[in-house]
Amino acid sequence: MAGTSVIKNMPSHDLLSELRTFVSGATRSMKTNPLEFARTALSLLKTLPAARDAVLEYFCTLFDSAVDKYITDVQMMVSDSSQPGAVSYEEATITEIHNVLCSFVSLNPEAWAPIISTWSLELLGELSSRYTGMARAPMAAGLNESLQLWMSCRATRTLIDITTQCFSCLMHSDTDSCINALLDTSVAHSPNFDWVVAHVGGCFPHTVITKVLSCGLKDFSQHASAEQGAKSPKLISVVGILGHLAGSHFVDIRTALLELFKWSMEPGDVEEADQRKATVPFLFQLASVSSTLLRALTTGVLQTLDVTMLAQLGTQAPGWCEYFGSAQALEGLVVHLALGCEEGGTRILKLLLSAATLEEGVPQDVCTTARRILELLLQEVDQQLRCTLSANIALLGCIQQEVSVIQPLLLEKDNLQVLTAVRLIALIGNESPAVLIGSAAQLLQKASSEDHLVALVRLIAAGPIVNQVQNIYMVHVLEQAIRETGGPGSSPENLWKNVVMLLRWERAGAGKVLRGRPVSRAVLDNLDEVTNLLGTVSGTCAHSVATAVDLALNGAMPFPNTQLLLMLSKAVVGYFFLCLQDSDVTVRLRGARLCCRLLGRLSVHSSPTRALALREILEKSLFHSHSHLFGAKITKSPVTKTNQDTSLLHDNQRQGSSTMLAQRHSSVFHAGVIGDGPRVHNQSDALSSDIVAHNSHQLINLLKAVCTNNIGGVSLDAMTMVSLLLVELISPDVMYNGLPWPEEEFCKARFYYVTIERDLHVRRRFDDLPLVWELMSLVATNRPTLCYCSVLLRAVTATLLAQWGSSGHHWQQSTHRAKLLYTTEKLLQLLSLGQLLPPPLSSLGDVVGKLSPHEVVQLLRDCVWNYLRDHVPSPALFGRDDLGVVWRDPSQAWPGPQYIETFRLILQTNIEQLGALYSQLFFAPT
């Protein structure tokens, strides 16, 4: 602030005396007091306009002397670490000048501010240029050090204060003059004058920034050319000033740039047309020489751009070429600026894509230019990465931070957007494979068309990992996709549908990338997660997962380890039962065939896998919740009513026999709750016979597939395993499970009580689980494996003997008779199919339906039980012919008369009904 001045108005007759005194002192012809002489000069400056230049020149000499002494002191301080001393008379003189000049400006700013500001700026420029070179290390380090140096000098600090005072008075009335003076001086003395601009701009940031831009634009529009370009001195000065202010006033700079851009887009007067047209090129040039201003543009102007504004800019673009020489040079500059963007990279790309896809309102020439710039941009990034693997491309780093904005482009319908996203993510993947993997995983989850999957293949092909390592890359993609499945916009059904499609392309050899079978490798390497998924999902997803596993295994890929194969076989069995529950017949058939193919391939490769698969199939089909699919009887919940006074012993004693013998017709065999009768089976939820037959047929086919050997035939070892598993699962006891049938005396001995409960249990399994008959038929077909089920056949035969023997009093009950006859015929058919009963005993099943109960008992005892007792069902009875077929030669196995006589006599007794059969079995031609 200005202090109190000692300058007073003088009479006119004293003015000449003051002038003579000033001239004498200035020429040093007379020795004067410096302070008084300065006051004289100030008096002349105020009262004698003609002497102003001389007075101001004298002040320049005075300030120059003060600065010279200050710099000398500074140099001495640097050498001996002392502090610069102060000169009292100079301090007083400079203070007096400061106070008087400030008072002049305050009292009459319109008259004095332009004169004094111009003088002070020119003097500051000359002093800065003259003495900056004399300053040493601490002063030459940077702008902050320069400010500290010059603001520590009383003379230069006084000049800065005077300049600031003048600017504060003129900023609202004659801003252009102030800023032009500042810029002109800066151009003349840059970069030594930068500290002055920084200080003044810091005092009036918004005004200085706005006016600096305005003046710079005006000069650019009038004088800029392609030859000058970014080398224009005025442009460099503008950049320097704004660069100095950016540290503390970046927001003001960004706001000023945005306002300038908006102004250029508005309609205006003809006089301003050239400046409006030059605004965007001017901003381009500023950004090309200053990364700070480029950042201000990308965080300000760029965020306001939209497709409509791009179309408007397209009408101005032809006129921009005069500032850059050619359209190619302009496009090259745009690409260069885009590559340097540390912020707003995704915004740039989306704007270019929006314009390139010919959205509504975008002219064709703008669309073409946008496509060309986009292609140049991607090519430049690719070239820089290839030339320098560690190239630091700001745009690429910016996009990587906002890759979540680019990833949705992979799922767009427009091919240009998809391909652009693929190329960008592939380029980012050179340094950040995780970004590429994550994007590919997201695309694999959400792809909804073949075009999207083609993009995925291209993304894999363009990735940094190639050849054999590329397979591992796809492994990580699938692993992440499985882990993230179920999130927003993704579903396991879509994921596995896409995997299946890729596997089919891979199998067809479509594309060089897929010939290495990366997708199959990915499925097999993630088989643990895939197996868990197959066991938990349902419906369409399960079908797709199973198909993917089948396609992955159907090739030259190495098989997984045994543990994974065991897990997979268990999951495939579960998937098989899931398929059988589908309402669509086509889906059921396709799923069942797929399971047969999968388990067949796994079983041939691994014996433990075959063993586990067989056990899983039999256990789940017979005893788990899936048993109803094969006609198993569903038992009602246990009865709550219990009669404690009823017992099986008392019930048997009421038959009138005091001694109960095993297998006597007087014994009552319960298959229910004592006192409540047999268990009641709920048939309301039972499936139709056609569905049960279909399901059973598919299960048998599955077992055959599991038992297939490597040449396509049925493995007898595997079928033997089925037989042994049936015995293990159906028979509750391990005792007396051998192949031999006991003697008749054994049946009467007390040891038979050990097996009676087991026989009843086995018989109940056959009655409740119709599938058991189908399984036994499968075993019987593959001779001689039925021999290992001897204990089951024996148990059923024993119960049939007892039931037929006690059926006299309720023989007329057709339901009971039909069930009993059905079981008997099924048993005899099994024995015949498995060649355990040779001819003519193999025809017993054809006659039992026409015999009385006691005749059936005789046949079962004499022809079946006794024969099998004496001819133990053993694989040793069978041989293998030249074709490899295992069978039992009837000519060598003809039973003796003690086994067929009963059969012959019964046929004779019923000759009227069975005469034709008798003639076939026992008629000997003469």
Describe this structure as you would to a colleague:
The protein has 926 residues and is mainly alpha-helical. Among the domains are: 1-199, no CATH class; 204-304; 324-401, no CATH class; 715-926, no CATH class. It contains 43 helices and 6 strands. The strands form 3 sheets. It has a two-stranded antiparallel ribbon with strand order 1-4. The chain has a two-stranded antiparallel sheet with strand order 2-3. Helix 7 crosses helix 9, helix 18 packs across helix 19 (364-387) and helix 26 packs parallel to helix 29. The longest helix is centred in the N-terminal third of the chain and has 33 residues, at 233-265. The protein is rod-shaped. It starts with 11 loop residues before the first helix and ends with a helix. The model is unreliable at 1-8, 81-86, 137-141, 637-644 and 656-670 (pLDDT under 50).
Class per helix and strand makeup: mainly alpha
The number of helical segments is: 43
Strand sequence of the main sheet, in spatial order?
Answer: 1-4
The stretches of 5 or more residues where confidence is low (pLDDT under 50) are: 1-8, 81-86, 137-141, 637-644, 656-670
State the end-to-end distance: 153 Å
The pLDDT mean sits at 82
Principal-axes geometry comes out as: rod-shaped
Short description:
By secondary structure, the protein is an all-alpha fold. It is built from 43 helices and 6 strands. Among the domains are: 199 residues, no CATH class; 101 residues; 78 residues, no CATH class; 212 residues, no CATH class.
